[in-house]
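Step 1: inspect the first sequence and its C-alpha cells.
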Amino acid sequence: MTTLSESQDEHRHATRTDVAKLAGVSTAVVSYVVNNGPRPVAEATRERVVNAMNELGYRPNALARALKLRRAHAVGVVVPDVSNTFFGALARELSDQAFTAGYALMLGDANNDLERERAQIESLVSHQIDGLIITSLEPNSEADVRGTRTVYLDRRVQPGQTSIIVDDLGGAEKAVQHLVCHGRRRIAHIGGFATLPGADARLQGWMNACASAGLSTDGLLVRSDFTRAGGLNAGRELLARPDRPDAVFVASDVQALGLLAAAREAHVRVPEDLAVISFDGTDDAVFSDPPLTAIEQPIAALASAALAAVLTPEQPVQTRIPVTLVVRDSCGCPPMPHAD
C-alpha cells in the first residue's frame, strides 16, 4: 500500500538538488547546464545532468531564472479597463506581436482605479520584465518603474518620457466635420471623464470643430465612464431634453452602444433623427445596430510602435499615430457597398 509520504513524493516536483544527487554533481553544475554558463561544463557531465533532468521530469523555473539573469523575456502592459473592447483588443494585439518577437505579455488591469494601477505597475516591475507599456488613468503621472524601460500610450508632458500618441484631437475634429457635412446643427458630445485616456483631447476637438462651423456647444456635453452603462445614462440625459441634439460625437465605442440603447428606448431613429459617430473603431462599431461610423484607431500599428519603442534602447521619443474615419450607417451616409 502506498503511504502518504510516498504519494506526496510522487507528486512533488523535482528540484535542482534532486537532479544534482542523481547526476552525482553539485547544484552549481546543474545551474551551469540550465543557464548555459557562466562556467563551462564537460560534455560527459552535461549529458549526465540532462539525462537526470529528463528522468526526473525536472523543468527549470523560468521566473527564478529570470530573476537571476535579470531578464524575463516578458513585457508588461497596464490598461485602465480590460473589459473595454478597445483595451481588450489592444492587449490581444500586443500579446500576439510580443509572442512573435519571442516575449510573453504580462497584463495588469487597473479597473479604472488609480491606486490599483499603481499596484499593478509595482507588481509587474517586481518580475524583472524587459519593458512596460502603460495607458495611465493619470495623464501626467510619473510611475515608479525602477529603471524599467517604459512607454506611455497617451499624451505625456513629463520630460524624458517615451510616448505613443494617438491623434485624438484631429480625429474628433474630423468626426464633427463629417456630421456638419450632413447638415447637423446641434451636435452633442458624450465624453469621458478627464482622467480617462484621450478624453480631454477628444472634447477639445469637438469644441474646435463646432466653433469653426459656427455651432454652439452650450448644454450639449455630458461626460461619463467609458462603459456601456455610462453611455446609456448620458444618452438618456441628452435625449430627454426638449432641445435634444440631432447628432452626437461619442468618445468611445462602448459609450456609443449605450447611446444606441437610449435612442431605442426614446424611439429616436439612428441615423434619421440622430446621427452618431464614435471613437475607437473596434468590433463594437462593426457589429452594433446600426453599424457605427467611427474614428478608427489602428490597433496593430499602435501595438507595433509601442513594442518597438519599449524593446529598442533608444532615447525617449514621441510618436503620433494617425486615425481614420470609417463610414458605416450611423452617420446618415448611404450604406457602403459590400465586396463581391
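Step 2: inspect the second sequence and its C-alpha cells, then contrast the two.
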Amino acid sequence: MDRRRGLSLRLKLTLSYAGFLLLAGALLMVLLWVLLARSFPDRAPGPPRRPPGLLAVSGPAAATAVAFLLFFGLLGGWVLAGRMLAPLNRITDAARRASDGSLSHRIRMDGPDDEFRELADVLDTMLERLESQVTEQQRFAANASHELRTPLAISQTLLDVARKDPTWDRDELIERLHVVNTRAIDLTEALLLLSRSDRRSFTREPVDLSLVAEEAAETLLPLAERRGIKLGVAGEAARVTGSAELVLRMVTNLVQNAIVHNLPAGGSVTVHTGPDGDASVVRVENTGPPLPPDLVPTLTEPFHRGTKRTRTGEHAGVGLGLAIVASIVRAHDGTLELAARPEGGLVATVRLPR
C-alpha cells in the first residue's frame, strides 16, 4: 500500500525538543523583561511607562538568545533523538529481514530493561517460533510429497508391467492396485485431518473420554484379538469440551498404535480415563519391546519410522498416527506425555482441560 511519505520520527522529535526549548526560552525572556520593567517604577500619574532604553538594550540580546536556543534545541534534539531511537532502528532492521524471509536473525538487545528491550525480546521470541514452525512445515511438506509420491510410483510401475506383459494375472493387478490406492487414500485423509486440527477449525461440544475410550476399544477389538492382544478399558467419566470426532480419532490412534507396536503374542493394552484436578486424563499403556530413550521424543514427528517402530502388513500405517494425536491435543490446549516402560512398551498420557 503506497502512502504519502511524512516526516521521520527522529525529525518530529527534534522539532518537538527545539520547539519546547524555544517556547521555554521565550517565556523566560518575557518574565525577565517584566521583572526588569518592575525594577524601574514610574511615580508620575498615569499608566506606568517602560524604562527608557530597556527594550532597545534587551531586544537584540533576547533575539540572540532565542536564536541560540533554537540552534541548540535543533542540534541537541537531533542528537538525543538519534540516540533514543537507535534501538528502534535495530528492531526495524530485524523486522525487515524477517519480511524478506530471513528468520534466523536475532536482535539480542542488551542494556536496561525498558520498553525497547521488552519489544526486542518479544520480537526475538516471535522470530524463533516462526523459524521453528516454518522449518517444521517445510520438512513436513517434503515428507508428505515423498509419501504421496510412493503409491503413485508403485501404481505407475504396476500398470507399465501389466501393459508390457499381457499374460499377467488381471485379478492380481487389481488387488495390488487396490492396496496401493487404499494406502494413498489413507495418507490423504490423514494429511487433511492433521491440517484441520492444526487450524482448530472445529465445533466444540461436551465429550466424555470414558465413552470415547470404550468406542475406540470396541472398534479395535477384532484387531487385538487377531494379534493375541488383551485389550481392557477402565476408569471413570472424564469430561472435556472439544470436537467429538477429533477426540475419538485421538484415542483410536493411541489404542491402535498400542496394539500394533506390541508383543507378537500375549501382549496387553490398558486404557484408563478419569479426572485429575482441573484436567481430564486418558492413559494408554501397552506391553512391547524395550524402546531406546532417544527414540521416544521423536515418535510424534510426522512420517517417523524408527527401526524398532517399523510395521508391515494389514496396518502398515502412514507414519502420522502419533503426529495426529499430538496435533489434536495441541488444538484442545492439552498435553501429551510419552514414556517408555522399563519392562518394554509405552505409556501415552493425554491431559485435556475439563
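Step 3: confirm your contrast with the notes below.
Residues 306-315 have pLDDT under 50 and may be disordered. The chain has seven helices and seven strands.
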